[in-house]
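Feature request, filed as a ticket because there's no other form

It would be nice if the structure record came with a short human-readable summary line next to the tokens. Right now we just get the raw output. Example of a typical job, pasted below so the devs can see what we mean:
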Amino acid sequence: MTGQDQQIAEQNALILRYESLIAELKRALYGKKSEKLTQDERNLGAEDLEVALSEAEASSEAATQSCDKEKKAKPRKAPERNIGNLPEDLPRIEQVIEPDSVECPCGCGAMHKIGEDRSERLDIVPAQLRVIVTVRPKYACRSCAGGVKQAPGPSWLIEGGLPTEAAIAHVLVSKYADHLPLYRQSQILVRSGIDIHRATLAGWVGKAAFHLKPVVERLAEHLKSSTKLFMDETTVPVLDPGEGKTKTGYFWTLARDDRSWRGDAPPGVVYFYAPGRAGENAEKFLKGFNGVLQLDGYQGYNRLMRPTRKGGSPIRAAYCWSHARRKLKEVFDRDKSGIAAEGLRRIAEFYAIETEIRGLPPEQRLSARQTQTAPLVAEFGTWLQEQRLQVSKKSRLGEKLNYIHKHWDGLQVFLSDGRVEIDSNNVENLQRPIALGRKNALFAGHDEGGASWGRIASLIQTAKLNGVEPNAYLTSTLQKIAAGHPQSRIDELLPWNFQKSS
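Raw output as currently delivered:
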């Protein structure tokens, strides 16, 4: 086989590899089996396939360049446009590459600059560790015994401790936003020559959680003063030291997000930890809230709608059409039920209208729902009752239809209030960071650890919702707390009030 034949064979093999990888990537993202995976699992699979595609592309480019060199050297192409976004406010370090000589080859003298080519690449410098040395000079008079003068020392969050407030914030963000358990952070620090045991890092996190507790409590009060909120709950494994195994704890997620109808209140979320899923936990966490609560059909919330509710008036529950849709989707995926397919088609019509009115003021949303969606929902209700008469209540389809019937009043609340969403997907999306942390950290160390986790995650996610960089926010907040920020001005420490210049 000649060299050219070998190159052709290699190129054909690369083409086949490309086609195979692209097919796998499509199956991972859009195939039927992908629906059984979470979004994070799909992303992880896609990442590895994209890495393989990139590796194959690099191999192809290397083979092409080798072939070109054998034929004839080609002039270097102008740099392609940047793939990605390089913000203007990033610091830029210019590297000017001058020719070895600017003398004209024909002896005319120095050549004149007629232009330049500029290209930009993203450079990343690993986290820089440094030591802050605080020096406080002492002064005394040589002529008298007037005493010694010295500036007072700065306030530290951990008096006499090793970390600055910025270092503590970095550990918090790495653990609760980037999902790096403390033992992994300890290993990363060792690679930089800093030996800090996981237990020491845990001490920093615990002290920060204690000092941030009043801020989170005020955040919860602020949310509960609203007239409409979301709530959901998700599991978290918690170590049970006495049994030597894990038990199941719960994060109850309370959220406000009025951006879809141009509400003035800033978005926010609080994760309350509880060792169980009993409805009394929801009653406790929602003490003081009176309004519309968007949630799923979990029966533990029923006590919130009773006249005997503790901590407030009976709430109005707005149930989730996304959950109703999932019930029918489960049956359709297994049985290809025509009744389930028809229900899914009808629900899709509701969502098509919601897509058109998202972002409009509540008055316009309400008007569109009453004129367009309400008749469709009424027809769905009639269709639902007809199908319930034809299907056995004990069948899977009958159970799903009965679920929708049971929550029918709450499923119609969005038709009478332009601020209410058609589903509770907003709060479900806010539970994803907890799920990611759960996968990476495996479990919370104990119930108190679960409470600390929820507390710090509340501030990080609320900062993200408001476009605030969590590390900068936590650094500033911890510094202010260390300096004795007054309780009477605690609202200034809420994430949406953070100013970068501060």
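Something like this underneath would help us a lot:
Residues 101 and 107 are 12 Å apart (CA to CA).
Strands lie at 139-140, 148-149, 228-240, 245-256, 268-274, 292-295, 316-319.
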